[in-house]
Amino acid sequence: MARSRLTLTLNLVGLTTLVSTTAFADPVSDRANCAHLRLEAALGNSSAASAAAKCSAPAPSASPMTREVVAASAAAKGELPEASSRPEWVDRGKRSSGSMLYGVGVAQPHEAPGGQERVVALQRAAAEIGAQLEVQLDATMSDRQTLSTASTTVDGRTASAERSTQQLSSTTQLLVSKSLEGMRVVDSYRDPSTKALHLLASLDLAEIAKREDAVVDSVIGGLAEAEERAAASVEKGLEPAAMNQLFDAIARAQAVGRTQVGRRIKDRWAGQLSRSTSLAKELVRCVELKGALAPWKPSVPVTMTCRDKPIRRATFNVLPSGGFIENARPFTTDDQGNGKVLVGRVFGAAPLDVVIAHDLSNTKAGPIGILGDNPEGARTNVAPSEPADAVLRLNDVETSDQDAMKLVEHIEAWATRRHGLSVGDKGPLFLRVQFNYPGSVKVGAKVSQPVEIRVAIELNGRMLAEKIGKSGGLADSQIQAKKQALVRALDVIRSW
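Given the sequence above, the corresponding structure tokens read:
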């Protein structure tokens, strides 16, 4: 049964642009189901393996040139007679405006033997229009949300980072491909001296928007393609690029779901998105460690695997809890999954729990909800070589301020509970606490006073862990607002 037609409105720099799509096709859904089964099977689901065996091989994605040939073929149906006089667009092009995008293509006689100049010119016009559409789609669908202002750093690694700009995903490219099928020839001109054929093509996004069911195809197709690649990677040896493609596909699906049409039709890909997200989490958790950590060793050789296959060229974080590993740094595996974990001294009162987890700080895993509150990965432990004795250092903290010192006591308790610190008069570690009071602001008849609490645990001048919390108070005076901010900061610390 035919699916409903839907409209996708994209607001870009004040310009409302409608994006093309076509009707939803069952083969796309079938491909998605098979991709999901294959990845499930690769991750160890035996029942999925038998079902995946019945699926056909994944269909290859269309190349950019293929989409331009298809678009050129479609546009060729609207042939127009060549203009007798030289149009202005031949020399200056034609500016896209409103819902209309324009592209100019030129073909020389020697480039297209057999009278194929028109096809070549159309391909080039399609490429020009496609480039404009890709920019608009990518800018509209990119998720640029800002992460929380609170950040956590462990062993010199910050756990929050703004997402970096990524290449256009297969989702965006498929949207462009479907859109270009609606391209039409507006005008043509043959230069009498060079015999070059000039074509002006247009893409009316307002018209194409009537066929927007292919938004569903593109979203599901992008997820399916990413799952296929992830499955193939797990079977041969997992690589970060395969995980990142799946993260990107999930991010794109979420972003399309926030557009005007996406909010109405996202239920049609919600099931696939949920399954892809679940599999992405399983992929992150698929980390096995071969090797044992021990104190005092400068480095320990390890092998990282997923389903007994090497995890290749991946970077891992070493995340201890209940203490500190002196030289713990991220490490990278080679083509066989081998790497070296730096250790050195180990500080703690009892064996430390250690998680070896993928370094996903420069991926979209966090913003799309793949990462939980606790790191996922291979779990091991290491015996301490000495107690985690620490000396308290206060910066910009008034020791006579009872509210401030009560806050410091809670910070000490957190450091003991979370990191196994024993705070006293001596030790190799430092627990540094700093209160920052940005300028107060008048809010009507009251005063607003923010406070920032920075806590760092250091060894030999190197930061092993950092925690930042923010609070604020609103009262009749600055002193009262500051007192209120410190009291409220207790709730912030308790949440650590």
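The chain has three domains: 9-282, 288-382, 389-494. Try to locate this feature in the token string yourself.
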